[in-house]
C-alpha cells in the first residue's frame, strides 16, 4: 500500500495510486479476475446477485487530501454484469500542501456488458481543492448506470473548491461532456443560474441500447424548498441524464430516484 509522502516540492506531496477492477463473464455469472488495491483503495467483492458481480471500494485512509493523485480503473468485459459501490461518503479535505487533489474514475464497458457505478456522496470540506473526472467508454451495445452526488461543505461550514467533469463516449463517438465548478474561485457557482443557494447536487446517467429514444425532457422538481431536477435525453443516443440540486443530499436522492423510475418506465 502506498503511504503518504511529503517531499520538499509541495506539488509532489501526497499519494499516487490507481486501483483496478476487471469483471468477466463466466458461464451464467460474472466473476472478477482482477482486483488490484492501491493507496487508500481496498477492493472487496461482496455477495453476487442475479448474475451480477459486486465490488465495494473501501477507503483505508483519509483521502483525497491536497496533493493526492488517485484513480479507479474499472472494466466490464463482454456480457459481464458489474456493480461497484462505496460503503461511505468520500470527503475531500485540505492537506499538507496547497496543491489540488485529483480523483479520476475510468469506466470501460464492452459489448453486451452492463456496469453500475454507484458511489456514496462526495463531500467538499472547507479548505479543500479537488478536481474529479469520470470518463465512460462504452461499446455500441453496452449499458451503464452512473449516479453521483456532491455536498458542498460539512455542517455549518463553507465548501472547498470542487470541479467535476463527466465525459461519455459510445462506439468512439462523444455522447456527453459536462463540466461543473463549485466554491472557491468558481464564478457565480451559488447564483441563480447554478445552485441558487443550494448545497447539494447530483447527476444520474443511464445509457442502454434498449431505451426508447426521442422523448422530451421532463421537469421533476421545481420547488425551492424541495429542490430542482430535470431529466433530459441525450441527442442521437439511447441515453438520459438527470441533474438535480437541493438543500440536502436526502432531497437530491429523492429527485434522482424519481428520475430513475421515469427511465425504467420508458
TrEMBL record:
Subcellular location: Cytoplasm
Family matches, as Pfam families: UreD (PF01774)
Superkingdom as given in the UniProt entry: Bacteria
Keywords recorded for this protein, A-Z: Chaperone, Cytoplasm, Nickel insertion
InterPro entries named in the record: UreD
Primary location recorded for the protein, binned into one broad class: cytoplasm
Family listed: Belongs to the UreD family.
Function of the protein: Required for maturation of urease via the functional incorporation of the urease nickel metallocenter.
Complexes and interactors: UreD, UreF and UreG form a complex that acts as a GTP-hydrolysis-dependent molecular chaperone, activating the urease apoprotein by helping to assemble the nickel containing metallocenter of UreC. The UreE protein probably delivers the nickel.
Name under which the protein is recorded: Urease accessory protein UreD
Organism field: Streptomyces nogalater
Lineage of the organism: Bacteria, Bacillati, Actinomycetota, Actinomycetes, Kitasatosporales
Encoding gene (name): ureD
Amino acid at each position: 500500500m502506498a503511504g503518504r509522502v511529503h517531499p520538499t516540492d509541495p506539488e509532489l506531496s501526497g499519494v499516487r495510486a490507481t486501483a483496478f477492477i476487471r469483471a468477466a463473464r463466466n458461464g451464467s455469472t460474472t466473476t472478477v479476475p482482477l482486483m488490484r488495491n492501491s493507496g487508500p483503495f481496498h477492493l472487496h467483492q461482496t455477495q453476487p446477485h442475479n448474475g451480477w458481480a459486486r465490488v465495494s471500494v473501501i477507503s483505508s485512509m483519509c483521502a483525497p487530501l491536497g496533493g493526492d493523485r488517485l484513480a479507479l480503473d474499472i472494466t466490464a468485459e463482454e456480457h459481464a454484469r458489474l456493480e461497484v459501490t462505496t460503503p461511505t461518503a468520500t470527503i475531500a479535505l485540505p492537506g499538507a500542501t496547497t496543491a489540488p487533489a485529483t480523483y479520476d474514475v475510468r469506466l470501460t464497458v464492452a459489448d453486451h456488458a452492463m456496469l453500475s457505478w454507484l458511489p456514496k456522496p462526495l463531500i467538499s470540506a472547507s479548505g479543500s481543492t479537488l478536481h474529479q473526472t469520470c470518463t465512460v467508454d462504452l461499446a455500441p451495445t453496452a449499458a451503464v448506470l452512473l449516479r453521483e452526488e456532491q455536498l458542498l461543505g460539512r455542517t455549518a461550514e463553507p465548501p472547498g473548491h470542487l470541479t467535476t467533469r463527466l465525459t461519455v463516449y459510445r462506439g468512439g463517438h462523444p455522447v456527453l461532456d459536462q463540466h461543473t465548478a463549485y466554491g472557491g474561485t468558481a464564478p457565480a457557482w451559488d447564483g441563480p443560474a447554478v445552485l441558487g443557494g443550494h448545497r447539494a447536487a447530483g447527476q444520474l446517467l443511464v445509457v442502454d441500447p434498449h431505451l426508447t429514444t426521442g422523448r422530451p425532457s421532463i421537469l421533476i422538481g421545481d420547488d425551492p424548498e424541495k429542490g430542482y431536477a430535470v431529466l433530459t435525453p441525450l441527442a442521437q443516443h439511447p441515453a438520459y441524464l438527470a441533474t438535480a440540486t437541493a438543500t440536502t443530499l436526502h432531497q437530491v436522492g429523492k429527485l434522482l430516484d424519481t428520475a430513475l423510475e421515469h427511465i425504467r418506465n420508458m
